[in-house]
Amino acid sequence: MPATYNASRISAILSLCGFIMGMDVTSLAVFLDKPYFNDYFHYPGPLVQGALSGAHPLGGLTGCLVYSLLCDKFGRVGLFRLGSLFWLMGSIIAVGSINTAMVIASRWIKGTNVGILSILLTAYCSEVISPQRKGRTLGFVQFACSFGILSMFCMCILLNHYWQEELTFRLAWSLETLPCLFFVFGSLWLPESPTWLTTVGRYEQAQEVQNHLAVEHNRVCGEKTPQMELLEKLDLAATLDDASDGFSYLDLFTLKYLPFTAMAAILQLLVQFSGISVLMYYAVYICEMVGLQSTVRSTAAAIPYAINVLLTLLPPLFLDRLRRKDITLAGAYPLALIMISLSLTMLLQGHRVQEPLGGNAALTWTVSSKGAPYVLSLCYLFVSVFSLTLGAAPWLYTCEILPVRARSKGLAVSMAVGWATNCVLTLAAPWLFARLQWAIFLLLGSVTLLISAFICAYFPDTVEIAAATDDAAAASRITKPERANSESPDHGSCTLSGSDDENGADKDPHNTPHYVNDSPSMSPVVGPTFKTATTETGLQKQLRHQHLQHLQLQKPIELSIVDGASL
């Protein structure tokens, strides 16, 4: 079946992945406080409740490991389909669950697919979607994820309204298979990543895919955005093949790449320690702590998911226009302060109870009716700020801050760190609610504040760095686009460099500043590791010798971004 090369259609198919990723967040939360659910599974305690919720991020961590083992052997589309198989298997086990062990196993298996997708979506978008539309695409995927969270929550509430028995959660978990089946069908139209095709030596197919992507991009965007320039297949092979030239996971921790690996991991730690997973997984706990009951409690717990959906529509409008670092910090600092304010409000307006609320051993703190509106308002404000900022920006930032050669494996490691943190927090949350009560939010807010200060002080920004295939070029400068020069050692890369005219800086109508590796704007943590590669690789020489005559007959391949006015 012929693939589609239209960015909008590709984004629509990938949005199904986002919807799948969001569904399992609330597929369990609705039932945790329901009498028939607790009676069927013999009233699980705080640790078992933590294991039920924590199995999902634990599966995410497993998915990162699966991706790291298979990313060089299977194509990107093949991994999409493999992850879908994990999801279908987990859903089948969930429907047939007769004890908590089976529920935990099913959520772990489904989480494995989510872990694979968390890396794969970012990597695939950076390899197939043009830089001008990458932020928009990931923004829509994030919106689909938020919509999946809300849709599953509402569907579970609706089913619970009609059937308050074990059929309710079995039917809800069975319906999770439908979006996955739709995505498997839609994946028939997804083009394979030209980057992966090149790294496995399938140059002709990579050239064909990349040519189609370039033509479609230029046709749709016209002169409104920078155009994609076509390069010869020789340049494609010489630049992208280096990404698979013996690079291992151990190389991520060498002096050259360790700063990038650390920055990517810290960004994922920021997202997790912000506390969004705790609020999303345990929203019903907070509603019960403030004294809400029955339908009012369900409605109040659904509001954060609705806010998340509505506000996630906005980031695609500005993600490609603002600095990644600015968006990240604009969300991180307020989120930290909101968390600290939430903890202080619960402390001043609440008290410990002798008997657990609703028979739930994890709930030993209650908030007075006077403080309840403030607690709920702070929770809603937190979700609003997160949706506008940390919902999508850190994922782009993580991808772009890693050099191309380290990107595939670096994403796997950083996402694994994020999923491991998510797993620990989700697993421990019921126990922390029982022991720390209000202080759990003070802990999360304080850690977020410290991480934010570190990012503000030491991290560079990446908004002007394209997906450069030359590590030194990617790391050493942030400059404006130019036409690639085939004589340059950087040629064939999507680097953003100065004009090829020696007076090009004077012609820049926007007076774009040029930064080099010793610029004050670059972090001292990463500066000393930057070196410039100026020699032609052995692979380039070999390919020039073996394929020169053949390449002259081939259509060139897109890899560069140039100014539309210069074409």
Automatic annotation (TrEMBL):
Compartment(s) where it occurs, according to its Swiss-Prot or TrEMBL record: Membrane
Source organism superkingdom: Eukaryota
Domain Major facilitator superfamily (MFS) profile, residue spans: 10-463
Species whose genome carries this gene: Zygosaccharomyces rouxii
Family: Belongs to the major facilitator superfamily. Sugar transporter (TC 2.A.1.1) family.
Keywords linked to the UniProt accession: Membrane, Transmembrane, Transmembrane helix, Transport
PROSITE patterns found in the cross-reference section: MFS
Main subcellular location: membrane
Lineage, opening ranks: Eukaryota, Fungi, Dikarya, Ascomycota, Saccharomycotina
Basic and acidic residues: bias regions: 479-490
This protein's name: Major facilitator superfamily (MFS) profile domain-containing protein
SUPFAM superfamilies tied to this protein: MFS general substrate transporter
